[in-house]
Design goal:
Layout lengths: L20 E3 L2 E3 L22 E5 L16 E4 L5 H9 L3 E6 L3 H4 L2 H17 L4 E4 L10 H18 L4 E6 L13 H7 L2 E5 L16 H13 L7 E6 L1 E6 L2 E2 L5 E2 L6 E4 H10 L6 E3 L4 E7 L6 E5 L3 H13 L4 E5 L10 H16 L4
Parallel strand pairs: 3-4, 3-17, 4-5, 5-6, 6-7, 7-8, 8-9, 9-17
Antiparallel strand pairs: 1-2, 10-13, 10-16, 11-12, 14-15, 15-16
Helix pairs in contact: 3-4, 6-8, 8-9
Protein name: GH18 domain-containing protein
GO molecular function, one term: hydrolase activity, acting on glycosyl bonds
InterPro entries: Chitinase_II/V-like_cat (IPR011583), Chitinase_insertion_sf (IPR029070), GH (IPR017853), GH18_Domain-Containing (IPR051887), Glyco_hydro18_cat (IPR001223)
Length: 363
């Protein structure tokens, strides 16, 4: 999720709050600027040496983010326009997230129309780029379609918003993970950076395990570098959520066996409440995965559950690894998973998570 500064073929550009933009034969008419200071609707033009990126939901928790130490926030449709105003006041990019369908991917004219609509939406919302969240399986013989789409969307943004960032989300490994046999080397040459989604790394064998084991996450990063993607083009995304596994059996070696598809995702803030109020074991630690976990009993059914998650301690190890491998930055999915209430314990836990996130990457 990053972005550079190409030349722009623009006939007339003052502030995006004023006249329409004319770029590559398209006319962009942004909506009225929602900011009290209209200069805040102008795009961010600076480029960070290192990226500290947060994914955001659609609620009001954005008001509690640690804005002074992040470089970009990735949002979906329907985000609060005031978030953009606040982000720009802090020099932080707001980047929209989305993807085309498989049908559109395989149709060049449909891709062109989609790219133009995507740019128009970005301009109309006064945002600073686009995060391609394409997560469909492709065979190696089909990979060129995705590469073509990435180039098309990058070129469209280059002509309309020369300071915009265009990035791609990827699985935790470059080795055809989840059937996504993409040409990461070619894509890495086009985008500002590739964002490695280092989560959902579960082995589907009915055993509860960490969401993002450190050894598996590290190997995934190495896979991208082996695929000739420079470390300077990689940003590591770590999870601020975990998994709750209902155990059909808990073995003597502390392995929770569960029925596939019965596990559910749980936000860090909710996990902390479970740990404080319902845990039967207290926090445990997996040396193999370098991740915390604990057990609790469902008060209604009496069934034992095992919860695997990441906290400030485990995530600091992932951030340290990313720094050692000289990645372009780090990211979290997602910032709204923390408890932003005023309860002192929640305040302390939330501050610890943000501090672990930004601590290694201040510059």
């Amino acid at each position: 999720m990053t972005f550079l500064v190409p030349r722009m073929l623009v006939v007339c550009v003052f502030s995006v709050t004023g006249l329409a933009w004319f770029a590559h034969g398209m006319v962009f008419n942004p909506a009225p600027c929602p900011c009290s200071n209209h200069t805040l609707c102008d795009p961010i033009r600076t480029t960070a040496k290192k990226e500290v990126v947060a994914f955001s939901g659609s609620g009001a928790d954005w008001r509690h983010y640690f804005w002074d130490n992040i470089t970009a926030v990735i949002v979906g449709d329907g985000f609060d326009p005031q978030m953009m105003c606040h982000a720009h006041s802090k020099g932080v990019r707001i980047v929209m997230r989305g993807a085309c369908s498989l049908e559109t991917l395989f149709n060049e004219s449909a891709r062109t129309a989609w790219a133009e609509q995507t740019v128009q939406s970005a301009v109309g919302n006064f945002t600073d780029g686009f995060n391609i969240d394409f997560e469909q399986p492709l065979q190696k013989s089909q990979a060129h379609y995705l590469t073509d789409m990435v180039r098309q969307i990058k070129d469209a943004f280059k002509k309309a918003l020369p300071y915009a960032q265009v990035t791609l989300d990827s699985p935790y490994s470059a080795e055809c993970t989840f059937g996504r046999c993409y040409d990461y080397r070619a894509i890495g040459e086009i985008v500002d950076y590739i964002m490695i989604m280092a989560y959902d790394e579960l082995v589907v064998d009915g055993r509860a395990m960490a969401n993002a084991p450190l050894n598996k996450t590290t190997k995934g990063v190495d896979d991208f570098i082996k695929a000739d993607v420079p470390s300077s083009k990689l940003v590591l995304i770590v999870p601020w959520y975990g998994y709750d596994f209902p155990c059909s059996m808990l073995t003597e070696s502390d392995v929770c066996l569960y029925k596939l598809s019965t596990q559910r995702q749980s936000a860090f803030g909710d996990i902390m409440k479970l740990l404080d109020n319902n845990s039967t074991t207290g926090r445990k630690w997996s040396e193999a995965d370098q991740s915390p976990y604990f057990d609790y009993k469902d008060t209604e059914t009496g069934q034992t559950h095992q919860v695997w998650y990441d906290n400030a301690t485990s995530l600091a190890l992932r951030f340290e690894m990313a720094k050692e491998k000289q990645l372009h930055g780090v990211s979290v999915f997602q910032a709204d998973c923390l408890d932003y209430s005023t309860h002192q314990k929640a305040v302390n836990e939330t501050n610890e998570m943000w501090d672990a996130f930004i601590g290694e990457w201040l510059f």
